[in-house]
Amino acid sequence: MRTNDPPQGARWTVGRPADLGRAVAGVRRARDLTQEQLAEQAGIDRSYLARLEGGATTLLLERALRALRRMGARVTIEFPADDAPPD
Hints:
This protein is mostly helical. The chain has a single domain, classed as lambda repressor-like DNA-binding domains (434 Repressor (Amino-terminal Domain)). 48% of the residues lie in helices and 9% in strands. It contains four helices and two strands; from the N terminus they run βααααβ. It has helices at residues 17-30, 35-42, 46-53, 59-70, and strands at 11-14, 75-78. The protein has a two-stranded antiparallel ribbon. Helix 2 packs across helix 3 (46-53). The longest helix has 14 residues, at 17-30. The two termini are 22 Å apart. The mean pLDDT is 86.
């Protein structure tokens, strides 16, 4: 694990697409996966994953996060403390 990567049990509060991108990148690196490996496992294009990790947004994502913020909700991503990645 790199020194800038999250410890297991880390959490991110996602208020903007960039927050989501940081969380995805942090967990991916902590799991010792390349973008190519994760993209293949997730069934997405590596370039899409790179844009997501870089904070790119889509209209759907931006609107969903905005609606949740306006209702006072928080979106949280938790990196579980166990070593087994979920399905």
